[in-house]
Write a structure and sequence with these properties.
Residues 136-267 form the Cytochrome oxidase subunit II copper A binding domain. It catalyses: 4 Fe(II)-[cytochrome c] + O2 + 8 H(+)(in) = 4 Fe(III)-[cytochrome c] + 2 H2O + 4 H(+)(out). It is an enzyme of class 7 (translocase). It is found in: Membrane. This protein has two domains: 10-79 and 100-130, no CATH class; 139-303, Cupredoxins -  blue copper proteins (Immunoglobulin-like), CATH 2.60.40. The chain has six helices and ten strands; from the N terminus they run ααααββββββββββαα. The strands form two sheets. Strands 3-2-1-5-8 form a five-stranded mixed beta sheet. Strands 4-10-9-6-7 form a five-stranded mixed beta sheet. By secondary structure, it is of the alpha+beta class.
Length: 315
Amino acid sequence: MGKPARTHGGKRVGRVAALAVLVALTATGCSGDEILRFGWPVGVTPQADEMRNLWTWTVIAALVVGVIVWALIFWTATFHRKKKNSAVEGPEDLPRQFQYNIPLEIFTVVVPTIMVCVLFFFTATTESDVLDKKPNPDVTVDVVAFQWNWEFKYDDANAKRPDGSQVSTVGSSGEIPLLVLPTNKTIEYRLRSTDVIHSFWVPEFHFKRDVFPDPEKNNQDSSFQNSIDREGSFVGRCAELCGTYHSVMNFEVRALSPDKYDQYIKLRTETNPKTGQPNTASEALAAMNCGELCTPHAVTTQPFNTDRTARTASN
């Protein structure tokens, strides 16, 4: 007897099994948390965690629906295809035909409607929590975007210099601006642009917002609040194409514990005896001498080299 030929259905099952094995082997290099984040960075705010949870469960729901659809497709293709050994096609070669199936039609209307309502509910509640604002934030920062850098002004009573000016940090082509903030405090960011539309984005916040020259005129909410869970340095970027040097319009968020932050603000209001000017962000951090967190320059990104002779054409 000859060896029986392998069916197309068997080949298809074999391919699916091989793909499942490949996915399983690839996933073994990731932790459970990494898999459930589906590519999102680790968040550092409660608002970021809420958005990541919404994203995770939305993707899981989509995968469940996808698996059911794929299973129905494979089942139909495998068990309801035309028989090859039929010499003449007849009614007996076709699946059972029917015109109406009321339970099935109700199912295909009701279930998607429930899914959309559930997704809308959790999306709306998450958005409401993320955009919620407390009446008296602990720290208020004016974020001013311009081509192609950032200025950060601290609008708090303890961030006033003796001459009445606000403590502020302005970036330049040679220095990445540091936005120093406290952990476990409510922070309000008030956004404004001096020229074109920019976008304030910190990936670990899982949040970004466009920065308009005239937000009131454009009917835009120009502020938001969050709180940072842990100390660290986090890169910030402009996420709106704003001109020639958009790609290098970066900044760095430096999150410090409340006691270190208070020390930093106090140093920013004092005069540097060497220069006779108020301490800059770099000088204040250097004077604190608290290890890596007080590094006086950005550690997550580098300034753009403006020296044309230092760059060469690529091959």
